[in-house]
Specification:
The chain has 396 residues and is an alpha/beta fold. 42% of the residues lie in helices and 17% in strands.
Length: 396
């Protein structure tokens, strides 16, 4: 078996609630998956941690479902197991959040209606988050908002959120392409769609990717994919990826690197790269658990769910068996899980008056504690409550 290689990346009566629309969770059902009743309400089933620390308030966490963002979902469940249902409330937004924003907002209003909720963690901060924060703030100005991966304009989000953290999409415009080049890529295919390209950081990252390709003598290709929140839904978007990757390889050869801006597209993209011996340098939200297990047929036992080393080793075995060693990579741990754990810990400490919610030293410390690895953090431009972070890469 070839060893896993780590690559150092350069640092750079409160309210009348709307009727809730039910949300279904895709993927294999595990012990942390919501009960059917909870899935219909959008609030996940909870368990109480027997030795949970005692404090007299709650933190709300909103994530996508397993099908839209499994890592974030699992991160919220880990916080419930640590602190108990008496202190953590977890709700999910609809898979089709673009057309069901009122359902998502009503979930957040439902959290805010609980007087014990003192902070809400958004993961991810999908469109509609700013509207929700504005409405909640009018009724509950005491609630703190912490966002992982905000989708809306950074400067506008910073006016409502107490703190936001996001992977360093601008620097990743360089590092992802540089890594692909190191892995032998001559062409770089970027899948996205208008909704994502309207987001400032994603759009700017793509431009940086294109410029970096030019510097390295690589061809950059933008491929317009279906929006998973559109008429074809997530199944249509995934089917497109499975069909298009072989077409692109036929045009450009196997020394082609692929990247998609959408979480739901990662599994078919990884599978296609492995099957067709193409290059997969990094997912939109880099993590060993983001797309890799499902794409490569890796069953993760309940006790193995948080063991990133064991999961990386399992991926390594599958990649070698597929004959694609040295051509697939990710970050060493889940950024979704790390982001939620760090923000939840910061929220608890902030409500207790122990830390300032947007203190960069606290953010670095909690991210590194959650990751068990070095994390590089810096603010976005001149915004003092919006931070971007990077980790090293691992090549299988």
């Amino acid at each position: 078996m070839h060893p896993i290689r780590f690559v150092r990346v350069p640092a750079w009566g409160l309210l009348g609630l709307l009727a809730l629309i039910g949300v279904g969770c895709g993927g294999e059902k595990t012990s942390d998956a919501p009960s059917d009743q909870a899935a219909r309400s959008g609030e996940t089933a909870t368990t109480t941690a027997p030795d949970a620390p005692s404090f007299d308030f709650k933190v709300g966490i909103m994530t996508g479902t397993v099908s839209q963002g499994e890592d974030e979902y699992r991160g919220a469940q880990r916080m419930i197991r640590k602190y108990g249902a008496d202190h953590i409330r977890h709700v999910t937004y609809p898979d089709n959040f673009m057309t069901e924003q009122e359902a998502m907002i009503s979930q957040l209003l439902n959290l805010a209606a609980d007087p014990k909720i003192k902070a809400i963690v958004f993961a991810q901060g999908v469109p509609g988050s700013m509207a929700a924060m504005k409405r909640i703030d009018e009724l509950r100005p005491d609630i703190e908002f912490l966002i992982y991966e905000p989708h809306e304009d950074p400067h506008q989000v910073s006016e409502y959120a107490d703190v936001s953290i996001i992977t360093d999409n601008l620097k990743r415009g360089e590092t992802i392409v540089e890594l692909a080049h190191e892995m032998g890529a001559k062409t770089f295919v970027h899948y996205s769609f208008p909704r994502h390209m309207s987001q400032e950081l994603i759009s700017r990252r793509m431009k940086i990717m294109e410029e970096t390709c030019q510097k390295l003598g690589m061809e950059f290709v933008f491929a317009n994919a279906p929006d998973p929140t559109g008429d074809q839904g997530l199944p249509g978007a995934q089917k497109f990826i499975l069909e298009d990757v072989p077409r692109e390889i036929e045009k450009y050869g196997t020394d082609t690197a692929f990247f998609s801006t959408n979480c739901g597209m990662q599994e078919p993209l990884i599978r296609s790269c492995a099957d067709n011996h193409a290059i997969m340098p990094e997912q939109c939200c880099p993590s060993p658990t983001h797309g890799y297990p499902g794409a490569l047929g890796i069953a993760i036992a309940e006790g193995q769910a948080g063991d990133m080393g064991a999961i990386r080793n399992a991926i390594q075995e599958k990649v070698v068996a597929a004959g694609n060693s040295g051509r697939m990579a990710t970050w060493p741990v889940s950024t979704g899980i790390v982001g939620i754990e760090a923000l939840t810990e910061i929220a608890i400490q902030s409500v207790q008056g122990k830390v300032r919610v947007n203190d960069p030293d606290v953010i670095v410390a909690e991210l590194q504690k959650a990751a068990g690895a070095k994390v590089t953090v810096h603010p976005f431009e001149d915004v003092d409550n919006y931070y971007m972070f990077l980790m090293d890469s691992v090549i299988f």
